[in-house]
Amino acid sequence: MKNSYTLLLLVFVVFSSCGDDLDDNLKASAATQFKFTHQWNALTVSSADFNTLQFINANGEELSVERLRYLISEVTFTRGNGEDIVIDGHHLIDVTEDSGLTYTPELEIPTGFYTNVSFTFGLNNEANMQNYIDLNSVSFNVPEMLGGGYHYMQMDGKFVNSAAEEMGYNYHAIRAVDNVGSNPTFPQDTFFTVNLGAVNIASETIVEVKMNIAEWFRNPNVWDLNVLNSVLMPNSEAQILMSENGQSVFSLGTVTP
């Protein structure tokens, strides 16, 4: 009788352990890291490539990049049933300073297959009205006369103009604004959603996000730096063109492991 009781107890423990394992698997989650890489078409670009006139845009202008930093927010994982797992907050990537090139959200993601991973380029209008100490500290603000809030991107450099002279450009993306001054208006949203595509999260996962810098100057709007090289922040038409070009800038790279 004693042996039978011991056997029943052992079976109960085994099945309980299996149940715990199954429950753990159902609830399993993993850390994700986003790795931001940069290219000019097929050429890999880092801060070491800055400050040199070596890139040719779609309009045929030779140019350099001296500063590149941009903001993403609201990283979202979407399941096949349409359920979204949203990671609140923002992240600043500063290529010039080699800062923020990786982003590891505190929130772990349930393992499984996701039909899409996406993020917002810049900040949506509600988020853009908030006050962020980290962005203030690196002077990423937009002046109140231009609607306030924060930049979506700052890209600066030099180019060779049509007179064969070297001059500067400031390709700064913000919320499109009209009526600059004490009562600005906003004709169109210029933040946008970047859809990277499907990913599978089985364990700790690194997701590469690729930016092709050349796309900012060519698709669908071929950018003429002789015409649009500076004072673009109060130019709502230029901001809308930037937003349109940004749709093809980002893509999904390698997903590991």
From TrEMBL:
<feature type="domain" description="Copper-binding protein MbnP-like">
    <location>
        <begin position="32"/>
        <end position="222"/>
    </location>
</feature>
<protein>
    <recommendedName>
        <fullName>Copper-binding protein MbnP-like domain-containing protein</fullName>
    </recommendedName>
</protein>
<dbReference type="InterPro" id="IPR046863">
    <property type="entry name" value="MbnP-like_dom"/>
</dbReference>
<dbReference type="Pfam" id="PF20243">
    <property type="entry name" value="MbnP"/>
</dbReference>
